[in-house]
Input
Amino acid sequence: MLKEWRLACPPGAHDLVFPSGAGNPENHANLLHRGFYPALRRAGLRNPVS
Output
């Protein structure tokens, strides 16, 4: 499964496993708001206080 994902990822200079759509490192805020916080809510947990 990971091999298929790697082949589908946009190429980039950093050879990232989960790059942005442009092939660059993801923005920290995007990771939190689009991935981490929604996963916390689905798990029934609340967001940590910054």
Observations:
- The chain has a mean pLDDT of 84.
- DSSP finds two helices and no strands in the chain.
- Helices lie at 2-8, 28-42.
- The first helix runs from residue 2 to 8.
